[in-house]
Amino acid sequence: MDMFLQQLVTGISIGSVYALLAVGYALVFSVFNFSNFGFGPVMMLGTFSAFYAIPLLHLPLLPSILLAMVVAGLISFLMELTVYRPMRKKKTLKLYLMIAGLGINTFIPNAAIQIFGGGVHPFPSDWARATIQLNTIAVPRSDILAAVLSLVMLAALWLFLYKTRTGLGIRASSLDTDTAGLMGINVNFVAMIVFLLSGAAAGLAGCFYGMKYSVFPNMGAIASKGFVASTIGGLGSLAGAVISGLLLGFLETMIAAYGSSTYRDLIAYALLVIVLIFMPRGILGKGMQDKL
Amino acid sequence: MGYLEGIAISASINIVCICGLVILTGYIGLFSMGHASFMCIGAYAAAILTKYYSFPFIIALLIGGAIAALSSLIIGVPTLRGKMSADCFAIATLGFGEAVRIIMSNISHPYFGGARGMSGIPAYMNLGWALALAFVSIVLTLNYARSQHGKLALAIRDHQDASELIGINIFREKIKCLMYSAFFCGIGGGMMAHYYTYMVPNVFNATISNNLLTSVVLGGVSSVTGPAMGTAILTFLPEVLRFLSNWRLAIYGLVMVLIMRMRPEGLLAHKEIHQPIVQLVRFIRSRTVRSTDSGRG
C-alpha cells in the first residue's frame, strides 16, 4: 500500500508535467489547427534560463520559475512571429508548418548542445530536493510544488479563457479563426496571447521536469509525450489534455513500478494507438463545437 | 577511391530510402518522424535471411521490404482512418520508431542479438549493386508518381474533401503511399546492413528519420529526382564541411526551417532533373519532323 501511494505521488507529479505540456499543445492547436512541433525547445530554453538564473543572479526558486515561464513564453512568441506568422499569411499547407516546427525541434536542441554543452545537470535548488515525511511515504517538495503550481496555472488559465474578454476572443477564434477575424477580433493579438500562454506552460513544466530528473539540452524530447497526451485527450481540448496527461503519468509510473521499466517509454505510444483505434477523436474530442 | 566509393554507396542507400519518402511526404502530404524504424525492420529481416538461411541477396532485400511494408499497417490503419489529422500520424510514427528500437534492443533471441546488434552479415553490397538499386528505385518511383496513383495522391494532398467528393478512397490511397514508402525504406535498411556487415538497433534513431525528411524537404515536393539530388548533396556536403561537423544537425534543422519559410515547395518543386533533357529531345524531334514535313510540302 505504501509503495502504491508513493508511486501515486510520483505519477501525479510527472502527470502534471505532461498535463501542462499537453495544454500548451492544445492551446495552439485549438486556435490554429496545427501542432507546434517546436514546443520541446521552448520548454528546454525556459528551464535553462532558470538553471542559469539561480546560481548567477542568486534568484530564489519561485522567481526563477517565473523567469523560466516568461522566457519560454517569449521564445514561443518569437517562434510564432518569425516562422509561423509569415507562413500563415502565405496560407501555406499545414504540412509545411509542422515541418518547420520539426526543423526548430532539430535546430535548437543541437545548437544548445554546442552552446551549453551536452552534459546532464541537476536542477540547482536544494529546497526542492528535500523530502517531507507524510506518515509512511516520503514526498519530495518538488512533487508538491509541481502539483500545486500546475493546478494554480490551470485554474488561472481557465479563469482567463472563460471570464475575460480576451479569453472570449480566444475561444471565438478556436471555433473559426477566419470568421473571428472578420468579427473584429485581432487574430494576431490572439496568436500572441496563445503562444505566450503555451510557452509559459512549457516553461513551468520544464522546471518541474528538471527538478524531478535533470536539466539537459535534449530534455525537450519529453514534450512529445505531452503531445501524445493532448492527442489522447482529443486534439485541441484543454480538459482532455489535463485528464490524459495525468492518466499518462499515472500509468507510466505504475507500469514502471509493477511491470517492466524497459517498456515504460512505450506506454504512451501504445495508449495512443489503442485510443485512436477505439476513439479516433480522443477521450474528450467531441468535434469542432466545444474545443476549449 | 574506397573513400569515394563509400560515400557513393551511402548516397545510394539514402536515395533508395528517399524514393519511398518522396511519395509519402511530397505527394500525399503526410510526414513521418519514424521511418528509420522501417529501415530497421527491413535490415533485420534481410540480414537474418542472408546470414542464417543463405537466401540470395536481392530476394532477402525484397522480403525485408515487404515485411517493412506490412508492419507499416500497424500505424497506418489506426491513424489514417476517417478525417484524422496528419498530426496523429506524425506522432504515431515517432512512437513506432521508438517502439521498434526498444523492442529490437530487448529481443533475447540469438538471431537478433539484442542491444549488441547483429554482426557477421554477409557483405553483398558493392558499388554496382548500390547504383543499380538506386537507379531502379528512382525509375519505379518516377513511374509511380506519373501514374494514376501519384495523381490521386496529389489530389488528396491539395484538397482532401474535394478529392473524396469525386470518389477517391482516401484511406486506401494513404495506406498505399505509406506501404510504398515503408517498402523502399526496408530495402534501404537491408542495403545498409549488407554494406556495414553489422548493426545495432540504436543506429536507426530519430536522427536518421529527420535526415531523410530534411532531404525530401530540401529537394522539393512533387518531385522525385529533386529529393534524390537533395540526399546526395546532404551525404556529400558533411564530408566536405568536416570543420562544421558538430553543428551538422543544427544546420539541418535550420535548413528545414528556412526552406519552409522561404520556399516551402523546396528546390525542385514539381520539376524533375531530366526534364530539360527530355524537353530538348522533344524540341529537336519536333524541329526535324517539321523540317521533313516542309521538305515534303
In summary, what is this structure?
The complex is a heterodimer of chains A (292) and B (297). Chain A has 292 residues and is mainly α.
Structure keywords:
heterodimer, A: 292 residues, mainly alpha, two-stranded antiparallel sheet, 2 strands, globular, disordered C terminus, B: 297 residues, 12 helices
Task: Describe the protein's architecture and organization.
The complex is a heterodimer of chains A (292) and B (297). Chain A has helices spanning 2-32, 39-57, 61-89, 94-116, 126-129, 141-163, 165-175, 177-182, 187-212, 223-232, 238-258, 264-278, and strands at 131-134, 137-140. By secondary structure, chain A is mainly alpha-helical. Chain A has a two-stranded antiparallel sheet with strand order 1-2. The termini of chain A are far apart. The model of chain A is unreliable at 288-292 (pLDDT under 50). Chain B contains twelve helices and no strands. The N and C termini of chain B lie far apart (58 Å). Helices cover 74% and strands 0% of the residues of chain B. The chains are: A mainly alpha (292), B mainly alpha (297).
